[in-house]
Amino acid sequence: MAEKEQAEEQTVEQTVEQTQAEDIVEEQPSADDEANAKNNEEELASLDVETLIEKIHQARSKADENWDVALRTKADMENLRRRTDKDVSNARKYGIEKLANELLPVKDTMEMGVLAAIEVDIENEAIDKIREGMELTLKMMNDAMTKMGIEEIAPEIGDDFDPEYHQAMSIQEIEGKKANTIVAVMQKGYMLNSRLLRPAMVMVAK
Questions:
Q1: pLDDT digit string (tens) for the chain, length 206 residues
Q2: Pick from 136, 102, 145: which is nearest to 117 by CA?
Q3: Which three-class secondary structure string do you get for 77-121?
Q4: What is the C-alpha separation between 155 and 188, in angstroms, rounded?
Q5: For every residue of the chain, which 3-state class applies, written as one string?
Q6: Measuring CA to CA, which residue among 139, 141, 165 is closest to residue 154?
Q7: Using an 8 Å Cβ cutoff, are 186 and 201 in contact?
């Protein structure tokens, strides 16, 4: 009887161990399952890397685009600053150009008046005072125009004709005169800070 009970207990234990072994086998993945899982992981990892690379390329492209925009903006601002500086400089130099052109005929008239007063061969105290006053006024005007950057173009007879600063009122063939030289000056010219205001009016030999 005791042997029979012992045999039955051994049978039960064997049955339990067999069941546990089967459960363990069922819980362990098969070789195919492991291969499929591995392939899925590799595919997912591959997709993640490609996506990351694509995002890196996109970020780099955007960064390059922003850099180009920044460089162009900087260049535009620099060009604007230069143009502004040039405009301000020109305004300072040539802002009085209209006024200067209005003053030139006045100065021409004053010079002719002084010249006429000098040529008058009359001993008269009143005339002398008028002449002195005109000369002083003309000198003050010349000083003021010099301070404003206005300079004379005063060619002399025999100078070469320069079309950049001279305007030929007439061209004549004159014996003993070298061709393309000035033989008479009708009116002075003027410059404003190296810019031509009015060319000198001259007669040229041919």
A1: 545 455 555 554 555 455 555 554 444 556 666 667 666 566 545 556 677 777 778 878 888 888 988 888 888 898 988 888 888 877 777 788 888 899 999 999 989 888 887 777 667 777 788 888 888 999 999 999 999 899 999 999 999 999 999 999 999 888 888 889 999 999 999 999 889 999 999 999 98
A2: 136
A3: HHHHHHHHHHHHHHHHHHCCHHHHHHHHHHHHHHHHHHHHHHHCC
A4: 8
A5: CHHHHHHHHHHHHHHHHHHHHHHHHHHCCCHHHHHHHHHHHHHHHHHHHHHHHHHHHHHHHHHHHHHHHHHHHHHHHHHHHHHHHHHHHHHHHHCCHHHHHHHHHHHHHHHHHHHHHHHCCCCCHHHHHHHHHHHHHHHHHHHHHHHCCEEEECCCCCCECCCCCEEEEEEECCCCCCCCEEEEEEECEEEECCEEEECEEEEEEC
A6: 165
A7: yes
Query: For residue 61, what are its two tokens?
Result: 């492209």
